[in-house]
Amino acid sequence: MPVKVLVVDDSMMMRRLVKDIVSSSPDIEVVGDANNGKVALEKTEALSPDVVLLDIEMPVMTGLEYLQAIKGKNLAKVIVLSSLTQEDSETAKEVIELGAHGVIAKPSGAVSLDLHQRRGHEIVKAIEKAAAS
Length: 133
Prior knowledge:
This protein is α/β, with parallel strands linked by helices. It has helices at residues 12-23, 37-47, 63-70, 90-97, 115-132, and strands at residues 3-8, 28-34, 51-54, 77-82, 102-105.
């Protein structure tokens, strides 16, 4: 049974890129996407994904607000994928405190067109690890 993933990013281009990366694994199925935390919250409850790949900077409801909203609800494992979560950054520490299972920094800003080459394998492995825990 494949791991079900919800992709959350306000950039349509990034959602498409991340979905392509994730779909490259036969063991992972993208069950939906969302362009902000509010839509992500609704889709998390409706689609029951195993893992949510979550951006931080989004309109309506940020990734931090989404994490606060699901904290303690055991809805899905969250991996934050954001340009704001460089290693040892305050935001990276905060998302872990809020319950994120992992953090992956976008390598070249909010719209990282090189994501597949620079972080694709890491994203797939993080999803597999989160789903197995």
